[in-house]
Amino acid sequence: MSERYIYILLTNTGSLVNRMIKLYTEAPYNHVSLSMDLGLSKLYSFGRRVPRNPVVAGFVREDVVHGTYRLFPNTTCALMQVQVSEETYQRVQQTLSQFEQNQHAYRYNFIGLFGVMLEMPVPRKNAYFCSQFVAEVLETSGLSLWQTPAALVSPDDFLQHEQCSILYEGRLQDYPLLQKLGGEVGVC
């Protein structure tokens, strides 16, 4: 059986919203996304649907070259991998496919962010924030990393988890596989 991995991208764009969250969390990264490939060609999360407007948010397929990250060329990141079974890998793909097929049914769980601050989960139907989404996809697919409800998982929890190993840390636009793919983040 070959090894399968899923990839978790933690980012710090330096945006106003990111800086405000960082004041509270004091964590190096305050956004998390999920990918099935090292090249980050399919990157999923809950965040900005409109790059210049953080309020219009929900399920997104992020683009590290042309999307929101283009507005923030100094975005720093930590790319992590988690080894999974073939069965779990397939379930993660199926779950992501279901989200993508029904993307307009989902919205951002702004209220849930306050629940994290108060350590009280605020799950809402079809509403997630980024780390809640990634934790929920993994849990639904058979990879439960925490005893904590997904609605209380923060991006920093991924950074601290022993099953998540860092492959790359630095500026997103300097990530070697993006350069090989011809992408350059932050160039208009």
From TrEMBL:
It comes from the Bacteria. InterPro entries: Papain-like_cys_pep_sf. Gene3D superfamilies: endopeptidase domain like (from Nostoc punctiforme) (3.90.1720.10). This is Permuted papain-like amidase YaeF/Yiix C92 family enzyme. The lineage of its organism: Bacteria, Bacillati, Bacillota, Bacilli, Bacillales.
